[in-house]
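Quick one, T. Sequence first:
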Amino acid sequence: MQRRDFIFGTSAAIAALSSGTLVGCTTVLSQAEEFGANNHVRPIGSPITPIQSSLDRVTRSVVGLRPFRKPGPRLEATTMGNKYLVHNYGHGGGGVSLSWGVAEIAAGLIRQQGSREVGILGSGVIGLSTALELQRNGVNVTIYAKDFPPYTTSNIAGAMWHPVTLFEKGQASPKTMQMLHLAAQIAFKRFITYANDTRYGVTWIRQHGLSSKPMDTSYPYIGGDALYPGLVRNQSSENAMFGMPFYDAYYTLMIDPDIYLRALVTDFRNAGGKFVEQSFESPEDVIKLPQSSIVNCMGLGAGKVFNDELIIPARGQLSFLLPQSNIDYGYAMMHPNHGLLYSFPRKTGILIGGSVGKGDWNTSIDESEVKRMVKGHAALASLANS
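Structure tokens:
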């Protein structure tokens, strides 16, 4: 990447994680309800306006490679040579959602070391959030990366607040699950403070998970069901959305990464943070950095540099339709005829997906996928008022 292309625009958590207790959600829910009251989001069961899905309304299509680890994200402290190293990567499709939570936990590990100068590897949402959390604790931070916003994987994220695609079912350890629940609680509480602030691009929406068969409710959503205001699970109705007989529904936050990451970059620079363009090919490249404490937020890049064979790409392709101001809802489903489909409203356009191609490194646009998603969402829209 050329430099001219570089567009800039808690201890309590660690204690809770190590002791096996989780932060309560009551305060978070009351704050969510308070913010939601003035957000103009209609009741969950209100009629919906169909999205207008057609090829002539597609403004762009993008491909992103989610950094996926079958056992879940890696968040731990270790040493490498003369460096104190905190790993914070591999968040799959939940990087934006978990960002403030894993940032706080990672910053707590740095505080235990007492470092005042820290290097961050990676400038996506995890790197930026971790850097900002460290700055709030008086740490001088330098971010090292090959690419910067808007050229990061985080810029291509769907970024509806609900941590998903985090691990392979049955492969995450109890400790990892505990960390994920705690991180989600911290992150959601932070994100609702940005809601409806136009500088950050975070808004409330109503979200629906749809299914043609009964849904498994034996496990809570990540962070606990109390983090999802208005939540109803595995409801059945003859008049359910798009003719799908079973659904979950709740209020959540929609984060527009292009707007949000620009704001984080500005906040980081205003706090004295520095960006350095640098590639890393081996552990030796990291050891050469001047800082004695490093936080690794490289995502997929960590696989090569730190020899992590567990991290793989989970390819996702999105298209964007021209915006519609009257869309205040999102949905996601595995449709029996159209495959995986999801849609979320943004101010900049209607996002449509979806795909999760694990192990697929291809970053080229698949035009057949564009047509499948456009056609599938159009078919759903045709049922909206039927």
